[in-house]
From TrEMBL:
It comes from the Bacteria. SUPFAM superfamilies: P-loop containing nucleoside triphosphate hydrolases (SSF52540), post-AAA+ oligomerization domain-like (SSF48019). GO terms for molecular function: 3'-5' exonuclease activity; DNA binding; DNA-directed DNA polymerase activity. Residues 167-206 form the DNA polymerase III subunit delta' AAA+ ATPase lid domain. This is DNA polymerase III subunit delta'. It comes from Serratia odorifera DSM 4582. Coiled coil: none annotated. It catalyses: DNA(n) + a 2'-deoxyribonucleoside 5'-triphosphate = DNA(n+1) + diphosphate. GO terms for biological process: DNA-templated DNA replication. Its EC number is 2.7.7.7. Pfam families: DNA_pol3_delta2, DNApol3-delta_C, HolB_lid. Keywords: DNA replication, DNA-directed DNA polymerase, Nucleotidyltransferase, Transferase.
């Protein structure tokens, strides 16, 4: 697993707590996607399970380390929803708890890594509560989450909360530059579109995804000129529609920033002419209304089972066209 330079400080802080006997048996790690929380947890797990620790580092040579490196340590348990499912039910929790109460097969620590704590069903979370409160000796739970508010309060209260911040923007830009994934302006844009998470920014900058965003921006520019918002349907109606709507909403919000004289805080630094175009063609009230509509649309697409994606997008785009018509915006040829 890759290691990232911005993880060094939190790793040392957390390991120091465990080394000093102050580490909590249940760590709740809150991080935005793309900040490397999985690598941090793996590093901590390696140290906890290592039988010949070298200060704050795992030795890499003991039998436990070799098993971890091979990916088959019997006392390292990874819990995740089954492929194609979004939730983690009670049965896997019961199975791992039963295993934890037996002796560690390697005679050392036992570690459970649950990357998506929000995926726990209520029954699964409740099944975990008692074990979190009174865990077997030398047992550690490492729970990851994106939105702590979605967890049961009783679950959160049994954990030590740690927020993994996104690294400093300049440090992230230096790292992205070393990855050679884009020019400085593109890197800054990708980073800001992902709340400063460098790994997520690097993934966005990969040619196929970056081209998808570029296509959306190009069609939006032409659609605004012709007030033909339905032209956006082909570039929105894809399986990653939630991400594409995030790109669209970010441009609309950037236009609101532009109107307020806050161009330095614009996310889409590589699309300033398009941001300015939106800012001049739509009033602040219209921009706010459109953003709210699109966010509601995105929520429906993510939460309503079996929703007709194309129909929902078409309705929203037609509503946008009607807003142009009812506001009496002049066609660009008459400006």
């Amino acid at each position: 697993m890759n290691w990232y330079p911005w993880l060094n400080a939190p790793y040392r802080q957390l390991i120091a707590q465990y080394a000093g006997g102050r580490g909590h048996h249940a760590l709740l790690l809150h991080a935005a996607a793309g900040n490397g929380d999985d690598a941090l947890v793996y590093g901590i797990s390696r140290w906890l399970i290592c039988q010949q620790r070298n200060g704050e580092k795992s030795c890499g040579t003991c039998h436990s380390c070799r098993l971890m490196l091979a990916g088959n340590h019997p006392d390292y348990h990874v819990l995740a929803p089954e492929k194609g499912k979004s939730s983690l039910g009670i049965e896997p929790i019961r199975q791992v708890i039963e295993t934890l109460y037996s002796h560690a097969q390697q005679g050392g620590a036992k570690v459970v890594w649950l990357a998506q704590a929000e995926a726990l069903t209520e029954a699964a979370a409740n099944a975990l509560l008692k074990t979190l409160e009174e865990p077997p000796a030398n047992t550690y739970f490492l729970l990851g989450c994106r939105e702590p508010s979605r967890l049961l309060a009783t679950l959160r209260s049994r954990c030590f909360y740690w927020h993994l911040n996104s690294p400093d923007e300049q440090l992230s830009l230096q790292w992205l530059n070393r990855q050679a994934v884009g020019n400085p302006t593109d890197c800054l844009t990708a980073l800001r579109l992902h709340d400063g998470a460098p790994i997520a920014a690097e993934q966005l900058l990969q040619p196929e995804r970056w081209q998808q965003r570029s296509a959306l921006c190009g069609v939006l520019h032409d659609a605004l000129l012709g007030q033909d918002m339905l032209a956006l349907l082909p570039v929105l109606n894809h399986d990653n529609v939630a991400e594409r709507l995030h790109w669209l909403c970010s441009l609309l919000i950037d236009a609101m920033k532009w109107q307020q004289g806050a161009a330095g805080f614009v996310l889409n630094q590589d699309r300033l002419p398009l941001v300015q175009q939106l800012a001049t063609r739509l009033s602040a009230a219209s921009l706010q209304h459109i953003v709210q509509q699109w966010l509601h649309c995105r929520h429906q697409l993510l939460s309503v089972v079996g929703v007709n994606r194309e129909l929902l997008l078409t309705e929203q785009l037609l509503s946008w066209e009607q807003m142009f018509a009812s506001a009496g915006y002049s066609h660009p040829h008459s400006l």
